[in-house]
## 1
Amino acid sequence: MRKIPTLFRRDPEDRARVTAEVNPGCEWVLAGEGVATRKYDGTCVRLDESGAWWARREVKPGKAAPAGYLPVETDPVTGKTMGWEPMAQSPFAKFHAEALQFHAEALDALESHAEAPADRSDLVPGTYELVGPKLNGNPERRTTHGLVRHAEAEVLPVPQREHAALRDFVLALAAESGAEGLVFHHPDGRMAKLKARDFG
């Protein structure tokens, strides 16, 4: 889990907002390269290769990391360290358990209507967005807690890639569906993000 750069530079007078200037290294987005996917508004979790679940955790400078913490990177500007903590000790553990229960029940229902047993291996190692009624005020408008695999995020057609058009697209997307914004994916692995709240 590396921090994804924001497509546009932050306003030095108001760090919550972006300017129209592209962040260095993100010019490929405005050049029309890569695809855009929906950025879901919940919290990031990870299933590792051994079957253990982790929750994304940010540790501020000078603060102690929680037990079992796996640091990934430290932001040189803010000094915050991004990493993973064991799901069992995360404040999101209860909602994650509910998401897994809902997932299992959905598979059971599918299996009861199928001639062959349902494939129960769809929760593969990788990162997911935990979404639902108790997360971030439920902008995704979910009735139950659930997991959305980032690798299977909805691909969105973005007709124009310039500041004003992207601003309008992201704000309309958030208003219509509760999406947090967009994540752009380049074929070589680079990514850039743009959130509705970047525009204040």
Note: Residues 32 and 98 are 39 Å apart (CA to CA).
## 2
Amino acid sequence: MRNILLVIQREYMVRVKKKSFLIMTILAPVLFVGGYALVIWMAISSVDSKTVQVVDESGLFTDEFKDSESLKFSYVKGSIDSAKAQFKDSQANALVYIPANVIASPKSVRIYAPKNVSMELKSEIEKVIEKQIENIKLSEAGITHKILEDSRVNVSSETISLSEEGEKTSSSGAATIIGGICAFLIYMSVFIYGTQVMRGVTEEKTSRIVEVIISSVKPYQLMMGKIIGVALVGLTQFVLWIFLTVSLTALATTVLSSKMPKDSQQIQQEMGKMQKGMPASNMPGGNVDNPVAEVLGAVNSLNIPLIIGCFLFYYLGGYLFYSALFGAVGAAVDNDADTQQFMLPITLPIIFSFVFAQFVLRDPDGNLAFWTSMIPFTSPIIMMVRIPFGVPAWQIALSMVLLVLGFIGTIWIASRIYRVGILMYGKKVTYKELAKWIFYKV
């Protein structure tokens, strides 16, 4: 046990002290949060206030064009010809001409500008005109705009789980997102850190350092120490990523909120007051949802402690299960090029697990979901997809037991290959040869 702890300490400290580890640990959250912050900042800062002149010969659109943070409207009296002559000397960005027969001929509307206007500006102008023409035609038909609005119904159902504990609000959307994220993190970690184990073993073998290490440490102890050491590196990196991402997101939100247009902040504040002061069903315009409250409610409907606990177990279990196989491959070959022939049987179950996860999300309780969440090769990813939807305790326990037994089996097979292959050089290994190594007596 002491030798395993020494190997774990060595593997952990060597990797954590590398510049590449420090750079990637800091750079990944910075790039992730910085990318989103840059997009939002550019969207906010790139919006310049534009002035639009309106010539309304119909007289139907008086005060229909409302000023906003990015658009300022002004009405011009007189003919379109005089308005165009004045427009050339003005600082306005566009001139909108609405003819007298706009109701009969909506396509006769014209937008004049020194150069092409943006699609956003064109769409905003057309939206106001279309809405007013629609209201006028509805009024002529005896249908008021209020009647039309009242006829529109937005159905938003609430899912409720019935269990022995009673009724409990649930959210299929939140379960799908959380399950997908957990499965993707396990999928990526198995690939990233499992290959690190394989490459570390290959490097030590090719540099002949392992010949010195084996003289004082048993091959099994060396392999276990290397696997657990890399696992701790992965956990450290995950924890730092989460901490840095949350901190940077909070900082970016604070900075960007001060850059938001004032009218947007006022609208959000007013909406917050309204939603605190009255039920959603009593709000003007029907049922107005609070997206933030909806997201928080959806997350709170899940069993977060169970999800976190299972994620840590299946993250470690999946990593240990596959890392043993990756370590065996690294010990069996002499260079990275030779690893490709043995990588396929190991990576295929991982890839298939992620593919099966797409179908499991549609039917979390089906036969495919059950059996793939029991098989150790696929259970780390599939079970994490199912858990947010609710899985019986006996299925989770059985899956965990089978994964532990699977890890014990793979570590036994890998150690048998490792003890022979780690000191073998210059020989092309085949699957038949690997099978013989398992039963060698050394």
Note: Strands lie at 50-56, 71-75, 94-98, 110-112, 159-163, 166-170.
## 3
Amino acid sequence: MSENTLIDPSLTDEERELSAMLRSFADDVVAPRSYEADRTRTLPLDVVAQMGELGLFGLPFPEEVGGQGGDYFSLCLAVEALGRVDQSMAITLEAAVSLGAMPIFRFGTAEQRERWLPDLVAGRALAGFGLTEPEAGSDAGATRTTARLDDGAWVVNGSKQFITNSGTDITRFVTVTAVTGESQGKKEISTIIVPSGTPGFHVLPAYDKVGWHASDTHPLAFDDVRVPEDHLLGERGRGFAAFLHILDEGRIAIAALATGAAEGCLKAAVEYSRSRNVFGSPLSSRQSMQFLLARMQLRVHNARLAWHHAARLRDAGRPFKTEAAIAKLTASDAAMDNARDATQVFGGNGFMNEFAVARHYRDSKILEIGEGTTEVQLLVIARSLGLV
């Protein structure tokens, strides 16, 4: 399978060089650790540190805050490269940047940025994004977690679930959406920075997940957690609106991750079909197999074009909400379909976790759920047509 068929020819020379470096790192450093990390359900923080040394966590941030001076497209190239070999490591990077550091960069005060960003963009620290609750998933406006001012401090009570990067040894804080009052009969939702180790902030045991086993994911509980008033992130009452924008960006990165997963499944299926002899000839010699692999390539191609387009729009400062939804929907479908087909190509071996396609089969389902379900993406697209 030619590498040229998998790379958009519109990439600049710098982007091609970055992509090649990222893919080499993924193949040489991340992939050899993937099976054991998945089996033991452990996030390899030494690999995270190497990602930090390469500057991956700082890709979309300007140099004045310690970043690499790149753009969101560059971050997505990194997420895609990692997603080919290990979705857990890819989502660790994506969530650390899109959901951890980006809100501080975009909405934080000068003091907040000075305090938190240097370690985040260097990969020395991680941060979580506390939005989802037991009763507030796709309907994030149903938030029940509260924060009230008391003698110069926010007092936070409530719970969050499915929070990535929230319980590692290098997690510094979680940004939490909370109801801080009412305005014209509607909930006023703001965002509060809650540092790790704050009394009353409880990181509950990690989930027993279907996939993404090496990704750190926990439910959180807040019991009269007190943080200084200056831990408000952004404008009071604008927390929900701000995070909707953050989620739009995140959908592009998830689309890149899903594209990488779809490509990883394609590459594995092509190689296996060539090496597997059935009734005296390679499996790849059968036209039915050739057509299946061709459809897998079609999905990768379309998914990559979709996220590239959305990322370019975002970096150009143009509206991208609908294109992000299209990219996320197209790529998550591609990942799930390619994982299923690749597992079938591998036969019984595809059911064994030591093979990457088996892990992709388990991992890819969440791509149709996280950062906006398939149904939410369809709703966004329908709205763009004036139908909702």
Note: The chain has ten helices and ten strands.
## 4
Amino acid sequence: MSNSPSNDSDVSFIRALAELLRENDLTELTVKREFGENDSLNVTVSRQTIAVAAQSAPPPPSAPAPAPAAAAAPAASADADPATLPGAVNSPMVGTAYLQGEPGADPFVSVGKVVKEGETVLIIEAMKTMNQIPAPRSGTVKRVFVEDGTPVEYGAPLMIIE
């Protein structure tokens, strides 16, 4: 800090800026206060934020299923990892999951749809490449864990096919 009139007033000013930051849900605030020709106070107040969009953890198993077939989901404990459930289809790569071939098109699968082994169930975009993800087995789609356009991690559960 500079040789401002009072360090106590500088501290009060910074506290007021921090409160303003919190009250208005801001991440950073920069202010320059001029006291005279060669006397000023430059203050930057910031706080760390967590980018939720960057996290790609699947919804917790206790979250309601996006479709009414939740009752048809495999009987497992509420704290079971969806990736370990019988019939789980896990992501083979990191990328962005798309449930349809192009915007506005019908989704590849939906809860209750019967799929054949090798049939495309979704696409994962990785490094500008669209990778078709085939059904590893024939069966009925019981649950879909991802939403269209969401990021996925390697091994993350995508859906249940039984």
Note: Strands lie at 28-36, 39-46, 88-90, 95-98, 114-115, 120-126, 129-134, 139-144, 150-152, 157-161.
